[in-house]
């Protein structure tokens, strides 16, 4: 047998029921009124358990409503959130069912909203978005429903913007190397080969030979210094090999060595 020693207001629409054993029960205002709980009231063990169960459901439902007020959530996100808040397993299931009845929880709608948001605000392709939706617990049918809103045209536009940004990042590389890295970057972002080819075709990146030669000079001089202890022939071969590995054009590489030879003659 327990006795209610006091009842205090908690956050939101909740109250704390303080028991003579020192235990505290968190309940909603609805449970407080429905069970007619008052200070000094004696509670049987069965009543305490009943209040705990009612409190778990009410508290969990209110927490879920608050959690959903910020943005849409998947069923798995709600279940994980309630588990983290130590809501009883049976109540977690009941809360999900109740939220579905209230049209506040629907993985198909969540998938559509999630895809639309990432289309507008991120550089992610369909494959990466699909992986994220799987981690959020969505089934294949709901995932594919959402991805239908990410059309080919929209994928190409996002891929173009991502490619332009990446190309600026790789401007210190050879043109061929930079282009290859841009393609790899787009694949890692979740775009397929067809979208990548279309995006790069529309962008029509062109090599700037003056810029390419400047890059060769910087890379070549680094290699030249790195291999300074080798004899002249081996040093020359090491630098040439290094520049070829970086995918610079042979004509520009030769131009670099012609300039280097003139420097040495002076």
Main sheet properties: 4 strands, antiparallel
The oligomeric state of the chains shown is single chain
The helix/strand order is: EEEHEHHHHHHHHHHHH
Q: How many discrete domains?
A: 4
CATH class of the largest domain: Mainly Alpha
Radius of gyration: 32 Å
Name given to the CATH homologous superfamily of the largest domain: Winged helix-like DNA-binding domain superfamily/Winged helix DNA-binding domain
CATH architecture of the largest domain: Orthogonal Bundle
Shape: elongated
Structure annotation, total helices: 13
Mean pLDDT rating? 87
Characterise the protein shown here.
- Pfam families: RecX_HTH1, RecX_HTH2, RecX_HTH3.
- With 266 residues, the protein is an alpha+beta fold.
- The chain has helices at 29-34, 45-68, 75-84, 89-101, 107-121, 126-135, 140-147, 152-169, 175-188, 193-203, 209-226, 232-245, 250-265, and strands spanning 2-9, 14-19, 24-28, 42-43.
- The chain folds into 4 domains: 2-101, Arc Repressor Mutant, subunit A; 107-147, Arc Repressor Mutant, subunit A (Orthogonal Bundle), CATH 1.10.10; 152-203, Arc Repressor Mutant, subunit A; 209-265.
- Strands 3-2-1-4 form a 4-stranded antiparallel beta sheet.
- The chain is elongated and about 100 Å long.
